[in-house]
UniProtKB/TrEMBL annotation:
The Glycoside hydrolase 35 catalytic domain, residue ranges: 11-324
Family indicated by similarity: Belongs to the glycosyl hydrolase 35 family.
All copies of domain Beta-galactosidase 1-like first all-beta, residue ranges: 369-478
Residues annotated as domain Beta-galactosidase galactose-binding: 502-560
Name used for this protein in its record: Beta-galactosidase
Lineage of origin: Bacteria, Bacillati, Bacillota, Bacilli, Bacillales
Xref: Gene3D superfamilies: Galactose-binding domain-like, Glycosidases
SUPFAM superfamilies assigned to the protein according to its UniProt record, in alphabetical order: (Trans)glycosidases (SSF51445), Galactose-binding domain-like (SSF49785)
Any GO MF annotation of the entry: beta-galactosidase activity
Enzyme Commission number(s): 3.2.1.23
Pfam families: BetaGal_ABD_1 (PF21317), BetaGal_gal-bd (PF21467), Glyco_hydro_35 (PF01301)
UniProt KW keywords: Glycosidase, Hydrolase
Organism superkingdom: Bacteria
Length: 584
């Protein structure tokens, strides 16, 4: 049994003053075999606390079906943090932002008509309650009041940036208390007045999130919450990347200087991120501030620990400042995780998507091109097929409203791409015998922040040829969560471009000494990569990310398999497994 409380303008743990020095590590962005390594490195830096969000969508992928195993075993992650000697701060949804798909909300929420997100809506709250009924009892034994490491828990996340429904926040607070969450409860918001006014509720400790101008942010907090501890719940010491934009970095000394400003003010700090990890699979989010911008697979965040767990100059400077201001017990660094160059892997097999549809999906018939969520699909791709009668003179194909990136095929021939951020039309003529129209839409990640959270995927309104709509569609959902039924045929040296449309490529490589590696796809255009059935995430020649991180625990001694789902084709069907990362 222990207590973490507020005593005047200080925190206290078991009655003794404590300044929280925390770092964010998201268990769902790190393979579990590396949790202890990353946590030990956090501890060795001089931090005393680890913070993590809880992503609802990974724990309830389908309504009423829960998952708390493997990468999503939050109990094991928290227990590992306790073994390392760390306190834990938990931020348990329902919304987390985090540049994570849909801000952590499950996609199936969008299938229910009339449901309103993140407010006092009975339909939404019923879903939250059902989730909390499973999640929170798992966390209760881990609270410090029950002898565990969890010292504080958050209510919602940066709500003042989204709305002002304080009744909703009070409902979440009451629900957490009723389920035995008797540790310090807090909210976190940006330091702007309107954010603090809309995100705070009585009796709940408020924290602020910022990346610079620490004194101004703390002054704003003190104005609304005087004579209380100062806490930066998210110190943005780095930043994330969008596809097609430069890789973000922040000068290490500048980040250290702001951290020192907070220490001088007596503030507690949570580094966001301390170790970013990876948006494996289809879990990257997106931003939409008037223009949709999807986040890359890497979540390196230019953090003190890299995406693959190496220490950086930023780490060294942060550790030096902590040793300057605090008397901490030395903690040894784990040995660096080894990396290997396994060399070039040539793809030996191929399977065309359109020829494999019956192995991947059962088609459904709809009058209109329904979005993914209405068909029970969360992530991946969706294919819409219809027949257009002819003859028709040159006419314009209009997708109204496509989310997010659509490849258009006429009688199997690629005609072009229509992107959400560039909603151009595609013109073609229709001969007397008519044509088959296929539209393959990629869900590139749901919006995770701001007023445009309701982000259904696929064709969300309709398809027009000229002015009128097209009806009568065959739809294949393609979540790509099971590729075992694919039938690959050999690639002849001079025939690797014979397949039309998107193609799955397969290759194998042998591993005698397991280590981390990086998958480079220099001659590829855009798609998704899988290693031994694990979805590593997306790649795209648009950059800035040029290689995908492959953690060693995904490999096995002996033969290993790579599958590449390439949308646009490649002139050289081979990949490189190197020991050098390339974030752009």
């Amino acid at each position: 049994m222990a207590s973490f409380t507020i005593q005047g303008d200080r925190f206290a743990y078991e009655g003794k003053p404590i300044q929280l020095l925390s770092g964010a590590i998201h268990y769902f962005r790190v393979v579990p075999e590396y949790w202890k390594d990353r946590l030990q490195k956090l501890k060795a830096c001089g931090l005393n606390t680890v913070e993590t969000y809880v992503a609802w969508n990974v724990h309830e992928p389908k309504e009423g079906q829960f998952c708390f195993t493997g990468m999503f075993d939050i109990v094991k992650f928290i227990e590992t943090a306790a073994e390392v000697g760390l306190h834990v701060i938990v931020r348990p949804s329902p919304y987390i932002c985090a540049e994570w798909e849909f801000g952590g909300l499950p996609a199936w929420l969008l299938a229910e008509d009339g449901l309103r997100l993140r407010c006092y809506d009975e339909k939404f709250l019923a879903k939250v309650d059902a989730y909390y009924d499973v999640l929170l009892p798992m966390l209760k034994p881990l609270l410090c009041t029950n002898g565990g490491p969890i010292i504080a828990m958050q209510i919602e996340n940066e709500y003042g940036s989204y709305g002002n429904d304080l009744k909703y926040l009070e409902y979440l607070k009451s629900g957490m208390i009723a389920r035995g969450m008797d540790v310090l409860l807090f909210t976190s918001d940006g330091p702007e007045d309107f954010m603090l006014q809309s995100g705070m509720i009585p009796g709940v400790f408020e924290t602020v999130n910022f990346g610079s101008r620490a004194s101004e942010a703390f002054d704003s907090l003190q104005q609304v919450q005087p004579d209380m501890p100062l806490m930066c719940m998210e110190y943005w010491n780095g930043w994330f990347d969008h596809w097609g934009k430069p890789h973000h970095t922040r000068e290490a000394q500048d980040a250290a200087n702001v951290f020192e400003d907070m220490l001088k003010a007596g503030g507690s700090v949570n580094f966001y991120m301390f170790h970013g990890g990876t948006n494996f699979g289809f879990y990257n989010g997106a931003n939409n501030h008037g223009k949709y911008e999807p986040t890359v697979t890497s979540y390196d965040y230019d953090s003190p620990l890299t995406e693959w767990g190496d220490i950086t100059e930023k780490y060294v400077l942060v550790k030096g400042l902590i040793e300057k201001y605090f008397d901490i017990e030395p903690a040894p660094l784990p040995e660096p995780v080894s990396k290997k160059n396994y060399g070039k892997v040539r793809m030996s097999g191929q399977a065309a998507l359109f020829a494999s549809l019956d192995l991947l999906s059962d088609p459904v018939q709809r009058t209109c091109p329904e979005p993914m969520e209405k068909l029970g699909q969360n992530y991946g791709f969706i294919l819409y097929t219809t027949r257009i009668s002819g003859p028709r003179a040159a006419c314009s194909l209009e997708l109204q409203d496509v989310h997010d990136r659509a490849l258009v095929f006429i009688d199997g021939e690629y005609k072009g791409v229509i992107e959400r951020w560039d909603p151009k039309s595609i013109e073609f003529t229709v001969p007397k015998e008519g044509v088959e129209l296929r539209i393959l839409v990629e869900n590139m990640g749901r919006t995770n922040y701001g007023p445009y959270l309701r982000d259904c995927k696929g064709i969300t309104e309709g398809v027009r040829l000229g002015f009128p709509f097209l009806f009568d569609w065959t739809i294949h959902t393609l979540p790509l969560d099971d590729l075992l039924k694919l039938q690959f045929k050999p690639i002849a040296a001079a025939e690797h471009m014979t397949e039309t449309g998107p193609v799955f490529y397969r290759g194998t490589f042998r591993v005698d000494d397991i280590a981390d590696t990086f998958l480079e796809l220099e001659s590829w255009t855009k798609g998704v990569a899988f290693v031994n059935g694990f979805n590593l995430g997306r790649y795209w020649e648009a950059g800035p990310q040029k290689a995908l991180y492959v953690p060693g625990p995904l490999l096995r001694e002996g033969d290993n398999e790579i599958v590449i789902f390439e949308l646009h084709g490649t002139n050289e069907p081979s990949v490189l497994l190197t020991d050098q990362p390339n974030l752009g």
